[in-house]
Amino acid sequence: MQQKNVPTGIGLGLRSRLMKAIERGEADGEIAFLEISPENHMHRGGSSPARFLKLADRFPIITHSLAMSLGGTGPFDAGYMGEMKRFLDRFGGAWHSDHLCFCGADGRALHDLLPIPFTKVCAQRVADRIREVQDRLGRPMLIENISYYQALGHSEMDEATFVAEVLERADCGLLLDVNNVYVNAKNHDFDPYAWLKTIPLHRVRQLHVAGHERWDETMLIDTHGAEVLPEVQDMMSWVIERIGPTPVLLERDRHIPPLAEMLREVRALDAVYQAAVARHAANRAQA
Amino acid sequence: MTDPLAPLRALQGALCARDAASALRTDLRGFLSRQGLEGADLEAMVEAGPTRLLAYRTMVQGRLRRTIKAYIPRVAHLLGNRYAQEFCTYMEVRAPRTHYLRDVPAEFVAWARERWATMPDLPAYLGDLARYEILRDEVANAPGGGEPETGQALALDRPLRIDGSAQLQKFAYAVHEVAGTPIDQTPEPPARATTLLVYRNRKTHRVHFVDLTPRAGALMRRLLAGEPVQVALAGAASDTGGQLNDEFLAAMVHFLTDLSERGVVLGAEP
C-alpha cells in the first residue's frame, strides 16, 4: 500500500517558532519529515522562502494546504491554484492534502475549516471538486476529516459514512486526523472506534495527531494547543496496527513549546508508533 | 428543491452579518430563514440551537480580528473600541477574499482607507498611518525581488531594471515620522506630502524606507512604470515644475547611484 519515496514515522509541522532550532540542526535525525502549508511559502519572497529552501534540502517534505475550500461554492481561484501547482511541482511529494470543509462562500475566504452538509448531493459535489483539483495539480489528493462543532443543515448520514462516501466517489486518499475523530466523538457523543471501523482504512495515507482544549463545559475544540492525549495515541496505534508504516504528523499551533520539548513528545509518540508497527508486522507474518 | 448550498451561505451569514450575534440568540429561525435556509435544513439548525453557531462566529471573527490588529497596532490603538466596530462592518460588507492569511490586513486597510476618508470624526491621517503600518510586512513578503543584475551600465535610451520588491507610496502625512514613538503616545504626524520608496534588501531581506524629494519621487514613479531614463528624467522635471538642467541631472544621477549601491537599481535593461 505504501508508495515509494514516502517518509514513514513521526514528523513535525514547520512553524516559525520552531524554525531557528530546526535550522540549527536540533531536529536532525529526530523527525521523519516536515509537513508544510504551501500558503505560508508560495506567492512570497524574502527570508521565509529562502529559509524554507534550505530546510527542503535537509528533510522530506509533505505538503498540506489550508485554503482550497474543497467544499466551497464557487470555482477555484485560478491564480491560487496555479501558484499551488508550481509550488507542488517543485516541492511536492506523492500526494497533496487539504480539508474536507469549506472556507467561505461566494468569493469570501474566512480562513477557518467550516463544516459541510452530510448529504449525498454534497458528497458528490465535493468529490467532483476533489477530482478537479487532482487534475489541476496533476497529483493525488488526500482529504482530511475536520473537527466540526455543529452538523450543517439536515444530515442524511453520519460523519464517518459521509467521509467514506466522498472518498469512494472521489477515489482519493484520507489524511486521517485521529484527534479530530476524538474531539467529534466527545462533542457529538459517538464511539470513535465505530467511526474508524466505518471508514475505508485502506485509503488512509497519512495521520495527524494533536492536542485539543476545552471551549466550555460541553465542547472541546481542536486548537492543536496541548499535548496528545493517551486516548488519541491509542487511536493512532489502533490504526497503525491495521495499516502499517505511515507518516504521522504531530501538530502544534498554539502554546508551542521549545523544540526540545516538542522532540520529547515526538520520541514518546514514536515509541507508541513503533510498537504498533511491530504488531502490524507480526500480524502479517501470522496471516 | 432545497438549495444544497443554502446551509453554507447560512453559516457564512452567521459568521459575517453584523447583527448575527444578537439575532442568533433572539430569533434563530428568523435569522436563518433570512439567510435562505428552509425545510429540513432549517429545522435541523433551529433544533441544534445557537450556541455552537455563536462559537464558530467567535472563533472565526476572533482569529481575523487579531490578525489584522497585529499588523496595524498603532491604528487599532487609536481606534480603541471602534476597531471592533470597524472590523464587524468589514466582515459584513466585504470580508477577506485572499487565500493568504498574511494578506488579509492589507485587504482590510484598502477597504478602510476609503471609508475612513469620509468620516470627519476620525483623524485625517488614519488611513495613511494604516497603509504605512502594513507596508513593512507587505514588502518583506512581496513575491518579487532578488532579480539578477543586468550587468549593463545606465543608458539614457533604455529603462532600468528595478528590484521587484520596490514600491512607491504617497502619503498626505509624514506618517513615517511617528513610527518610533510608543504606540500609546502616537503624536499627530505632520501634514506634509510624502513619497516613500520601500524595498527589501537583497541580502539581509530587511525592509528599508527612503523618504524621497518630490523630483526623486517623480523620477522613480516613471522608472517603475518602465520609461527609458531620458524620458523619465524629462518627465520628472516637468512633473515638478523644474528644468532639465545640470543641477537637476547631477542630483538625479546621485540619487540613482545611491539606489544602485542599495541594490534597488539593477542596471539598464538589455
Your description of this structure?
The complex is a heterodimer of chains A (287) and B (270). Chain A is of the alpha/beta class. Chain A has a single domain (9-286), classed as TIM Barrel. Chain A has nine helices and ten strands. Chain A has an eight-stranded parallel barrel with strand order 1-2-3-4-5-6-7-10, surrounded by four helices. Chain A has a two-stranded antiparallel ribbon with strand order 8-9. The radius of gyration of chain A is 18 Å and the shape is globular. The model of chain A has no long low-confidence stretch (mean pLDDT 95). Chain B has 270 residues and is mainly alpha-helical. Chain B has two domains: 73-141; 144-268, Outer Surface Protein A, domain 3. Chain B has helices spanning 6-16, 20-26, 28-34, 39-48, 51-71, 73-79, 82-93, 104-117, 126-140, 214-224, 229-239, 246-262, and strands at 160-162, 167-171, 194-200, 207-212, 265-268. Chain B has a three-stranded antiparallel β-sheet with strand order 2-3-4. In chain B, strand 3 and strand 4 form a beta hairpin. The longest helix of chain B has 21 residues, at 51-71. Chains A and B meet through helix 2 and helix 4 of A and helix 1, helix 4 and helix 5 of B.
